[in-house]
Amino acid sequence: MADGKKIAILGAGESGTGSALLAQKMGYEVFVSDAGKIPEKYREELQEQGIVFEEGGHSLDRLTGAAEVIKSPGIPPTAPVVQRLKEAGLPLIAEIEFAGRYTDARMIGITGSNGKTTTTLLTHHLLERAGLKVGLGGNVGKSFARQVAAGDHDYYVLELSSFQLDDMYRFRTHIAILTNITPDHLDRYEHRFENYIDSKFRILQNQQESDSFIYCLDDEGTRRGLASHRPVAKQYPFSINEKVDQGAFLDNNELTVKTAHNTFNMTIAELALQGKHNLYNSMAAAIAAKVLDLRNEVVRESLGDFKNVEHRLEQVGKIQGIEFINDSKATNVNATWYALESMTSPVIWIAGGVDKGNDYSMLKPVVREKVKAIVCLGKDNGKIHEAFEEDAEIIVNTLSAREAVGVAYHLAAKGDTVLLSPACASFDLFKNYEDRGNQFKEAVKQL
């Protein structure tokens, strides 16, 4: 117990409020500070629990009186309040780091530029179907801290962003999954890919020889990271290009998983998630399941009946023979590449938003091959026009989901696909990617 030790929390969303509940339970004197307006449900929860908070700004004198600060991952290290707290010598940590101190559960941590949410949900689905007492947290579900405060689990499956990993120091993942590393959020990493790679590999810190590291052998960014980071845990690579001794690979349209104890096989046609990117996600989750010695029957059933996350290649409907797909969660170039690569019909591509330093060059070949027209959805579409002016015959600008869907519908013909896969953040026109996806789906319904 903390016995009245003071702790401050920056940000009062799900992560911050969960941290406050756990800190209070563990005997801390808690102060929550949010620069914006706290959402009503969290404000009420803090009030009900008698937790002191402020909103609309930060009181530095109250924050600097804390022994430790739990920081929301959405607050950048360059924020003035963060800089002032660092200057004052205060340790800043992530919610995951804090909550991890108060549980003895086995941790399955999943990170990567793309696929981490799907892989996290699929891994949780596998463990839950096996009858294990498992929690789901990190960037999905209820906050990890809230779950530890409410009642512990034997396992946690946690989706971990690079922003969370940056503020984690002693936390240990017993099973670490790295889906891939492609340039993303480089504005937070001095526009250096190597800095971002280093951030992702923080998931390996504190692992021991008895732990497991699951990673994509086919991913160039991961291979670059392995050249400078030496895992101590048992390694389980997965690949669709070559066979591995232990891990997962593709052999004549059959997914094979090998561990020291047994082998699991399943045809890719049986997988609930189709497409190359989802094959990788299924491989990673299946390895984790077999490392935990889950029965083959449970793994096969779970991989076959899983339903994917909303806003990720979500089929919205078909109108006049035109398919509409919501991939609003694709907020970087690599995620959009996977989406375009998986398309089997001509595409009207809705793209754009807040550019995070994107390099669109990797998309040019697939755009030339599959895209009939580009509908830009954002306030500043200059980079998209510049990148694809030689690859797409039609590029038009729109400023709302309804306008974008209407324009795309008129540009499409029977048998085409209208794909919202922005490759950009959403904050210029929308609250978040969920809001963007929901407005897209509503606009399709209105056609």
Q: What can you tell me about this protein's structure?
A:
The chain folds into three domains: 6-93, Rossmann fold (3-Layer(aba) Sandwich); 99-305, Mur-like, catalytic domain (UDP-N-acetylmuramoyl-L-alanine:D-glutamate ligase), CATH 3.40.1190.10; 314-446, Alpha-Beta Complex (Protein-Tyrosine Phosphatase, Chain A). Strands 7-8-6-9-10-11-12-13-14 form a nine-stranded mixed sheet, covered by helices on one side. A six-stranded mixed sheet has the order 15-16-20-17-18-19, sandwiched between helices. The protein has a five-stranded parallel sheet with strand order 3-2-1-4-5. A hairpin with a 4-residue loop joins strand 13 (254-258) and strand 14 (263-267). It contains 17 helices and 20 strands. Helix 1 (14-25) runs parallel beside helix 7, helix 6 crosses helix 11 (276-291) and helix 16 packs across helix 17. By secondary structure, it is α/β, with parallel strands linked by helices. Keywords: ATP-binding, Cell cycle, Cell division, Cell shape, Cell wall biogenesis/degradation, Cytoplasm, Ligase, Nucleotide-binding, Peptidoglycan synthesis. This is UDP-N-acetylmuramoylalanine--D-glutamate ligase. Residues 311-424 form the Mur ligase C-terminal domain. Residues 110-289 form the Mur ligase central domain.
